[in-house]
Structures are given as C-alpha cells and as structure tokens.
Amino acid sequence: MAETTDPLLEALSRYSAAVYDKDVSAFVALYADDLHVFDMWNSWELRGLVAWREMAAGWFASLGDERVVVKAHDVASEVRGDFALGHATLTFTGFSAQGQELRSLDNRLTLALRREGGGWKVFHQHTSGPIAHDTLKATLKRVSP
Fold first, then answer.
1. For the chain, what is the mean pLDDT?
2. Is 82 within a domain?
C-alpha cells in the first residue's frame, strides 16, 4: 500500500506547530537520537537530542510572550524506501502577544529523514542563507530568481 502523506510535509507541519506552541518536547520529537544539525545560528554544528533540546529551550524561552509562525515555501521531497530527503525555504515571522508582526526572516532548509519505529525522524538538518561576497553578511530574505 502506498503512503498517502509526504514525510517531509508532515515534519514541516509538526515543526511549525511546535515552534508556534513553543513546545520543546514536540519539537524534539521530530528528530532522531543521533541527529546532526548544521545550523546557521551561533553553532557550527549540533549533535544529538540533548544539544538540540538545549537549543530549542533557549530559543523558545527567548521569545517571552511572542509567537513565531513558520511557513514553508518551495517544498520538494523524494522518498526512497525508508529514507526521505527534501528541501524548502522557511519563513519565520515573529508576532507580539497582541498579534502585531515584529520581524521576519527566511532560511533555506534541507532535511534527511528515516523511518523509525513506525514513523519518520529527522537525522540530518542543514539550514543556510546565501552570503554576500563583499560584506560576508547572510541574506535572510528570500529573493526570487
């Protein structure tokens, strides 16, 4: 029987919900124990769920009463047996407790997932933004080609 859901789309939906709810446990539940992340924020890499949980807890705590809405754009994925690979652009928009938009940025994201225990877990994640040669600053707003 063919699968009816795309594991990458499902992971992105759960990621968005966990970030909005600032739910560290739901966020970390998306990831495999041996997770390896190349993140673009502060650390060259993060390995394992302990490091990833600490990152998420710090991020969510730093938001105070703000909420972050995550929307995925240009999603592409492929499933081969027990592995799925895909990429997307994620837009992170911060809102005040009163619903006012505060800031927004875009990240490029690549995810590698594998089937584990009847579900899918992210075992590798890579986020990026293009770097301007002249300033060495990241571009954090998606530009159409």
1. 90
2. yes
Domain count within the chain = 1
81 located within any domain: yes
User: Could you tell me the CA-to-CA distances from 89 to 24, 53, 56, 86, 141 in Å, in that order?
Assistant: 22, 23, 19, 11, 10
- Please name the residues in contact with 122: beta carbons below 8 A apart, sequence gap of 6 or more: 11, 30, 31, 32, 35, 111, 112, 113
Residue 1 placed within a domain:
no
pLDDT of residue 9: 95
Per-residue pLDDT, 1: 40
**2 found inside a domain:** no
How does pLDDT run across 33-68, given as a tens digit for each residue? Answer: 999 999 776 777 889 999 999 999 999 999 999 999
**CA dihedral sign of residues 67, 113, 28, 36:** negative
List the domain range (segments joined by +) for residue 63: 7-128
Q: Is the pTM of this model over 0.85?
A: yes
